[in-house]
Amino acid sequence: MDFAFYTSNKIVFKQGAINEVGENIKGLGSKFLVVVDPFFSRKEAMKTLTKQIEEIGATYTVFSDVTGEPTVDLVDEVATFAGEQNCDAVISLGGGSTIDVGKATAALITNGTPSIDYLEVVGKGKKVEKQPVPFVAIPTTAGTGSEVTKNAVLGSKTQGFKRSMRDDKMVATITIVDPLLTIECPPSVTASSGIDALTHLIEAYTTLRAKPISDGLALKGIELAGRYLERAYKDGSDIEAREGMSAAALIGGMAFANSGLGAAHGFGMAVGIRYHLPHGMACGISLPHVVRLNAKACSEKMDRIGEALTNKKFIKPGEGTTAAIEFLFDLNEAIGIEKDYKFLNVPEEEIPEVALGSRGTSMNNNPVQLSDDELISFMKEIM
């Protein structure tokens, strides 16, 4: 029962919270670096944010060239820019990539570049020793949970990796979640980010590192995602669904940041990097297959997942698990997620390399541990 729990120092969850940013960030810095994705750089939310920075007597500079998933080169560029501009606080307004760029930059401002030195597995093992500058996360999608996690996922297009820069000090100083900011999120992004959130929740609940606090959070988040993801996908203006998914994503981030993930993320990362699939989609495809795989190791938890997803009570052992698997396959179909990776037409000789590439921290925490041969066999079934 020994555990520690980390999350943002303060979380504000409210429709219209973007209009109250000033009162929450006052005193955090004198010059803010605002990291924003290009779409929101031209939106009213950005104008509202920058106006409030000025109203509290601070200044700001903007970096809006975050496109695609963040790379080590991009983060080093942003950190250098922030240093040249003498920024002493960072705000991210955008999706998971934008938040990860801001989160990593806040740490690099005080600890120095290059970012690759801090990355797990591929880095030099360098630690984030100095406290990052204050960091404020304002998500505009409901998926990654990066607004409350202690890591930033960075990749390299030339070296072909995607790894985490991770430290307890990297949790956001303040997280501000305004579900209204997700209304303009297109269906494809709603689906990919939403199934990513659900994967976080299910894996946080079943991982070998699951904790009492993460279990309670994860079950509630699974219930929310099961109820609202398809609704948010089909009608982006459904504010109840948007609010429910914003909460599910937030809760998922809180849960997996403290308990870890599992095989669905291991497989999803390996496939997504190699074949350029959106991260959430790549993980979501493998999710129902991994739930079926893991059922033999945590059947009671899988039954509870089925009950949370379907809002039904099952009497016989295994009924909830069956319901969960069926629900996830049906949900993926409803939101445009493929049932397996076969649509990629991957040559059979490539599959072993993809399978073994799934090894990492996520796979290490999966309730069913697979040998290399078992990994390859599993991937051949779904690829």
Summarize the structure.
This protein has 383 residues and is α/β, with parallel strands linked by helices.
Structural class: alpha/beta
Beta strands, count: 8
**How many H/I helical runs?**
15
Largest sheet: 6 strands, parallel
Largest sheet strand order: 1-8-5-4-2-3
Can you give the mean pLDDT? Answer: 96
Question: Could you estimate the helical fraction of the residues in percent?
Answer: 40-55%
Order of helices and strands: EHEHHEHEHEEEEHHHHHHHHHH
Q: So what's the overall shape?
A: globular
Distance between the termini: 39 Å
Could you describe the 3D structure shown?
With 383 residues, the chain is of the alpha/beta class. The chain is 50% helix and 11% strand. The chain has 15 helices and 8 strands. β4, α5 and β5 form a beta-alpha-beta unit. The radius of gyration is 20 Å and the shape is globular. The relative contact order is 0.11.
Topology of helices and strands:
Layout: E1 10-13, H1 21-25, E2 31-36, H2 38-41, H3 44-55, E3 59-63, H4 72-84, E4 89-94, H5 96-111, E5 135-139, E6 151-156, E7 161-166, E8 174-177, H6 187-206, H7 212-234, H8 239-259, H9 263-275, H10 279-294, H11 299-310, H12 319-334, H13 351-356, H14 361-364, H15 372-382
Parallel strand pairs: 1-8, 2-3, 2-4, 4-5, 5-8
Antiparallel strand pairs: 6-7
Helix pairs in contact: 4-5, 6-7, 6-8, 6-10, 7-8, 7-11, 9-10, 10-12, 11-12
